Amino acid sequence: MQVKELSVGKLRVKNNIFLAPMAGYTDYSIRKLQIEQGIGLTFTELVSAKGLIYGGEGSKQLLFSGDNYNQTAVQIFGSDPYFMRLACESEDLRHFEIVDINMGCPVPKVFKNGEGSALLTDIKKAEEIVSECVKSGKTITVKIRTGQKQGDDIATEFAKMAEHAGASLITIHGRVRDAYYSGEPDFNAIERAKKAVNIPVIANGGIFTEQDANIMINNTGADGVMLARGAISDPFLVNKLLKTSSQKTLKTYILAHVELMKEQYGDEKASREFRKFTPYYFKGAVGVKQLKAKLVQAQSTKEILDLINQNL
Ligand SMILES: Cc1cc2nc3c(=O)[nH]c(=O)nc-3n(C[C@H](O)[C@H](O)[C@H](O)COP(=O)(O)O)c2cc1C
Fold first, then answer.
1. How many CB atoms lie within 10 A of CB 4?
2. Which residues contact 109 (CB under 8 A, 6 or more apart)?
3. For the chain, what is the domain count?
4. Alpha carbon nearest to ligand 1 atom 18, residue
5. Is the CB of residue 40 below 6 angstroms from any atom belonging to ligand 1?
6. Are 144 and 195 in a shared domain?
7. Which of 8, 152, 213, 290 is surrounded by the fewest CB atoms within 10 Å?
8. Is residue 1 part of a domain?
9. Is the domain of 20 the same as that of 125?
10. Domain holding 89: CATH number?
11. 3-class SS of residue 297
């Protein structure tokens, strides 16, 4: 794929390879590490607009971005245009220039409230949300899926709506809600949407290798790609796309990840949080069954660091 700078509203983003929002994964530590690997823009995981307004500490913790606010967008979700705008204007979001609106989350808890992917069948409400958020003066971006059920294709309509309502970029996850995270992305839906608007269109879904990224760009003409699970299981996927060499090896990357989590969460929570990354880091690796078992049982970050130091 061709690497290029992108204009997002009045911002210049240094390249067109983004890191997706992923609840429970793309916290401060992973965003920082991926920025160091060269990624252009990262996103916080979805944060509830109402949670922010009503002062939920849990929501606020998700925002922390250290020195990286200039390469981090915050993603918010909600269904009430008024609260969404309030969230954009809130003190908590003062460090973020870009606010992304989640219109793709399939999780029942979110969907049942008319939020996330539920908005994909209510374009009028979706438009009101974007228009209100734009009034906050933030650079607004939108992340959608291609619909709710197999056969749906709302991407073009939504891309036009988002552009018309003042959004500066749209990311299209090329799957419908019912597909959750499996199946080939709908390249045609992304391609049609890309042709219909002038704002940048970022393509997402199923990018695990350099070849996947090339296929995505060749088939859709999108302006860039958003890496999700692929960037967790291969921290150097971004280097492969950028054609840069990494300063870190898998060993030093994992060690840095554990240290950063320890700084942010403290020892106990960091060792618990690390567990879910183990299957990603060792996906496809042979002879690591015992190591994986020990890592998920580790009670402290010291234990994890020792295991990594001794075995990688
Ligand atoms: C565990 C997990 C958490 C996710 N959390 C979010 C989220 O907070 N906001 C969002 O817009 N998408 C979220 N997504 C969707 C991803 O951003 C991405 O669209 C999806 O994983 C498809 O890309 P992939 O096939 O390359 O993984 C999540 C996906 C996963 C697997």
1. 13
2. none
3. 2
4. 228
5. no
6. yes
7. 290
8. no
9. yes
10. 3.20.20.70
11. helix
Q: Where are the beta strands (DSSP E) in the chain?
A: 6-8, 11-13, 17-19, 41-48, 72-77, 98-103, 139-147, 169-176, 201-204, 224-227
Judgement on whether residues 61 and 170 belong to the same structural domain of the protein: yes
What is the distance in A from the centroid of ligand 1 to the CA of 238?
17
Q: Which atom of ligand 1 is nearest to the CA of 173?
A: 19
> Do 295 and 229 have their domain in common?
no
Q: Write down which residue in 191, 214, 242 finishes a domain.
A: 242
* CATH number where 298 lies: 1.10.1200.80
Phi and psi angles of residue 99, each rounded to the nearest 5 degrees, phi first = -115, 125
Q: State whether the beta carbon of 21 lies less than 6 angstroms from ligand 1.
A: yes
Catalytic machinery residues: 105
Same domain, 175 and 287: no
Q: Is the pTM of this model over 0.85?
A: yes
Domain carrying residue 129: 6-242
258 plus 205 within the same structural domain: no
Closest protein CA for atom 13 of ligand 1: 22
- 75 CB within 6 A, ligand 1: yes
For residue 227, the ligand 1 atom closest to its alpha carbon is 26
Residue 22, ligand 1, Cβ within 6 A: yes
Pocket perturbation via mutation, ligand 1, pick of 173, 207, 210, 216 by most ligand atoms within 8 A of CB? 173
CB 30 within 8 A of CB 48: no
CB 239 within 8 A of CB 230: no
Cα 302 to ligand 1 centre (Å): 30
Residue nearest to atom 23 of ligand 1 (CA): 205
Atom of ligand 1 nearest to the CA of 143: 11
**310 CA distance to ligand 1 centroid (A)?**
33
Identify the pLDDT of residue 60: 81
Write out the chain's pLDDT in tens, 312 residues: 999 999 999 899 999 999 999 999 999 999 999 999 999 999 999 999 999 999 878 888 899 999 999 999 999 999 999 999 999 999 999 999 999 999 999 999 999 999 999 999 999 999 999 999 999 999 999 999 999 999 999 999 999 999 999 999 999 999 999 999 999 999 999 999 999 999 999 999 999 999 999 999 999 999 999 999 999 999 999 999 999 999 999 999 999 999 999 999 999 999 999 999 999 999 999 999 999 999 999 999 999 999 999 999
